[in-house]
Amino acid sequence: MDEIVTFERVLWGFMVFLNGGLLVLLVYRKNHWVVPFFFAYVLFNFLQCFILFGSYRIWGFNSPVSSRMAWGTQIFVSIARALAVAQICDRVLAKYQGIWALARRLLAATAAVVLLYSWAIARGSWQFAVLNANRGMELMIASVIVILFLFTRYYGVAVEPAIRALAAGFFLYSCFFVLNITILEGWMYDYAKLWNLLGTLAFVASLLLWNWALSRKLPDTTFEPVMLSNGVYRAFAPEINDRLKTLNEHLEHFCRAERNRS
Amino acid sequence: MSLFFYSFFGLIGLFLLVFAWSARNPRGPVPPSSRVGASDECGRRHITYLPQIRQAFAKSDYEFLSKNASRDTVRRVRRERRRVALAYLSGLHENFQSLLRMARVIAVLSPELDAVHEFERLRLTAKFAWQYEMIRWKLLAGVAPVPQLNGLSDLVSGLSVRMEAAMKELGERAAVAAELASSMNRRGLDVV
User: Fold this and answer.
1) Of the partner residues A220, A227, A251, the one whose CB lies closest to the CB of residue B111
2) How confident is the model over B124-163, as pLDDT tens digits?
3) Separation CA A260–CA A262 (nearest Å)
4) Residues A70 and A176 in one domain
5) Residues A141 and A251 placed together within one structural domain of the fold
6) CA atoms within 13 A on the CB side of B156
7) Which of B4, B188, B191 sits opposite A121 (nearest CB)?
8) Are the beta carbons of B108 and A225 separated by less than 8 Å?
9) What is the ipTM of this complex?
10) B15 vs A98: CB contact, 8 Å cut-off?
11) Residue B3: pLDDT above 90?
12) Which of A31, A61, A171, B34 is deepest in the core (most CB within 10 A)?
């Protein structure tokens, strides 16, 4: 335990305090029924802190056993994290059947491509296998959140402020994690100590954001819009696209005029 | 360090930019002039002034002026034509945005979407936005010559009657949906 410097210990304590506070807040505001996967994620994180604390006390901070414990428990935390993000997507778009079906396919394809990209360019050695897997997962989470918000922006779907803050917390931490691991991969030994510290700081920032977002009760269900019949879309989508094409042609008229003059 | 190593930084930078842009609060309430359905009124306004606009942009008119008017007058006419061209461009943009809003409302309220139509619309939107900005900046800078605007009459008169009626009905629904969305944004909450 002595290897962990005092500032890190204080920061770790603060992180555990915020994590515990978030759990209490989730249960107190009854939000654990509204976002159960997020609750599970926070709970797993909280439990992981105690498991790691115990293993560092028994086997020491730099022992291989502690390292295996840390990465072993991280698998459960990462899965819960991915499920919590999936739940955010569901909460935002599921009430709009059409765009949700389209978004699901697009999000799944994006996630698969990003995972493949991440694996393809990762270093081959086993030393980095766990780190690479984690980086792939975090990159996937970040890309899914970006696509989700692009969808909501494009279709003008309103996102609850609390859900937006939850997503922002996940996104910022994921981005930071990817950068952090990439730097760690490049300058492994020089950067290892700082890597732990910066990772904790980024997570503390996300926890603060989540605590603020969940300080109020989330509505159990959001409003259900009345859907149009399927025929309306089939009839109008091609016609509107044709009119948009016509407007584009009108715009091209300007370009043609310019070319003719020159 | 490999190129791939730096690609992670580039990718994250891109993600951060896109996220900052897309996660912002949507714009405030839709101004009445840009609402869905307002395009009809806008089209009618264009029709009212169409003869004058076409006259002003006629090649013969311009040639006549070049021969008979002073250089200052020709320059002023050119400047005014440029202003009309910008207004025409803005009208096209307004029409495009109005149609896009309607298409989005229909898509959001439809139980099933066709990915081909959606991506086609996205492609057309990107193409329009790019061309619009290029032409606008060129006109503002005085680099682009002012076109003849022959297509103006097609724009305002080439709309099918069936589409107009149906669009009007959908426009009313869309306006209600836009109102609902903007009131939700004002309150910062979803309707429960």
Assistant:
1) A227
2) 999 999 988 988 888 888 766 555 555 544 554 444 444 5
3) 5
4) yes
5) no
6) 19
7) B4
8) yes
9) 0.83
10) no
11) no
12) A171
Partner-chain contact B145 A257, CB within 8 Å: yes
Binding-face residues of A in 198-237 toward B, CB within 8 A = 219-223, 225-228, 230, 232-237
Would you list the DSSP string of A158-217? Answer: ---HHHHHHHHHHHHHHHHHHHHHHHHHHSHHHHHHHHHHHHHHHHHHHHHHHHHHTTSP
Q: Are residues A143 and A232 in the same domain?
A: no
pLDDT in tens, A21-34: 999 999 999 999 99
Residue A180: the pLDDT is 84
Determine the residue type at A139.
Answer: L
Same domain (yes/no): A243, A135? no
Q: At which residue do the structure tokens 């990915």 appear?
A: B115
Q: What percent of chain B has pLDDT over 70?
A: 54
Interface contact A239, partner B, CB < 8 A: yes
Q: Look at chain A and report how many structural domains it folds into.
A: 2
A17: pLDDT strictly greater than 90 = yes
Q: Flag if A155 and B104 touch (Cβ within 8 Å).
A: yes
Q: Which of B19, B147, B5, B71 is nearest to A135 (CA)?
A: B5
Nearest to B131 among A121, A222, A255 (CB): A255
Burial call B93-130: b when 16+ CB within 10 Å, e when fewer: bbbbebbbbbbbbbbbbbeebbeebbebbeebbeebee
User: Domain of A246?
Assistant: 227-262
Q: Is residue A218 located within the same domain as residue A249?
A: no
Residues A218, A247 share a domain: no
Tokens 């917390």 locate to: A169
With CA atoms as reference, the chain B residue closest to A155 would be B104
Find the CB nearest B117 among A154, A227, A241.
Answer: A241
